[in-house]
Amino acid sequence: MFVMLLLCVVSFFVLIWHSRLVGMTIGLPIAYLFAAHLQYLPGAFAHAVGGYYFTDSSTTQIGLRFATLATICFVAGVILAQRIMRGTVGKSDASWLHQLGMLRFAVFCLLGGWLAVFVSIFVKIPSLSAAIDQGAAIWILGVLMGLFRAIQQRRTDHIFIWLAALSVYPAFVLIWGGYLSFGSTSIFIVMSALLLTIRSHLRAYTFVTLFSLLCFHMFLSYFQARDDIRDTLASGAGLNQRVQQSAHIFTDLKLFDPDNTGQLSGLDVRLNQSQFVGMAFLNIESGEAQFLHGHSVWEGLQALVPRILWADKPYFAGSSKIIREVSGFEVNESTTYGVGQVLELYANFGVGGVVFGFLLFGFAYGWIDRKAATNLQNGGLGGALVWFLMGVAMLAPLASVAEMFGNIAAAAVASFGWRFAWQVVGANTPTKRPSRKRLNTNARQADQDAPVEAKQKG
Description:
mainly alpha, globular, 0% strand
C-alpha cells in the first residue's frame, strides 16, 4: 500500500509543479485533488500502519489501486489542458490584482456571497434554492482576490482581515451545524491558489506538506470531539457553549499515534473511500452485483434540466443508492456517505471508465480553471464569475455524477445572475489600469509642462 500512497503523493506534487510552471491558473484542480486525497488516502494509510488492528485490509488495498489510477489520469488530463491552452494566452503575472476596481469587486463577491448563504437558509424553492446555494461560493473568489492583493501590497493588517473573512463560513458551519468538512472546501481553494504564488519551489512543497499534516491531525481531533459538539448543539446551548466545545478541536490537537485504535478507527470509518471501491470491485467480480452500464451517468445528464422546467423529473436517489447497489454496504441513514467519481465510473464502465473518465474530467477541470484565471488576468470579471463558480461546483470528490451535473447547472445559472448584478453595481468602476502607452504619454507631458510652470513661478 505504501507504494500506491507514494504514487498518489508524487502525482499531486507533479500537478503542483506543472501548475506553477505554466502559470495562468487559480489552483482549482489542485484543490480538487487535495480534497479527494483526504477521502481516499488517510484510511488506506491507517490500514498500512495498523495491520495489527485491522483483520482484513485487502479490500482497501484494491480500492486504493483504483484511486491511484484515477489520480494519475486526472493529473495527466489537467496537464494536457494546461499545455494545450498555454499557447492561447499570455504569461500570468500579479498585475491584475492592482487593476482599478479589483478591490471593489472582491468586496462585492464577499458580501454578495455571504448574503446568498443567509438567504439559502430560508429559500426552499426547487432550482432557485440550488442556484442560490451554488452561487453563494462567490465569496471565496472575493477572499482569494482580497488576500492576494493584500499579500502583494505587503499590508499585514489587510492580510489578517481577509484571513478572518476566510474563516467566517467554516466557523459558522462548525458552530451551528457541527460539521468540519462542509466548510473546508473554501479553505482548500484559497490555500491552493496561495500555493501558486510562493516563489520558491521548496517553500511551496513545504507549505503544502505542513498544511496537509495540519488537516490530517485536525480531522483526528474533530473525530474524537464531534459527538460532544453535536450533543451540545442538539441541547440548544448558547453561542458561548458552542464556541467552547468546538474550540476543543484546536486545543486538544494530538499527534497521530499508530497504536491509538481510536485514531485508526476514525480514519477507517470516515476517510477510507477506497474501501467502498474495493467492495464494489469484489461484488461485481463475484457476480453479486452488476455494472450499471451508464445508468447513473444518464441520470446525471437528466439532472442538468432544472426541476422548475421539468416538474415530473424523476428523483435520483444519488450516492447512497449507488453504494448499496454495487458494494452491498448498508448506508446508515444518520451518516452522510458519498459515492465518489472513482466508484461510480468503475461501477458504470469498469477500469476503462476510470481511466478515460478521469482523463476527461482532468482535462475539463484544467480548461475551466484556465478560463477563470485568464478572465481575471484580462479584467473580464463577469466571465471569471462564470468559470470560477462552475469550477467550485465540480470540487466535490464524493458527489455522484447526477449531483455534480446538477450543481454545475445551478452554478452556471447563478453565475449569470451575479454577472448581471456586477454590471449594475460596478458599471461605473473601471477594471483595467491605464495602458503603459498612456502612462508614458502623461509622463512626457508632465516633463514638458515642468519648465513652463517653473518660468511662470519665476
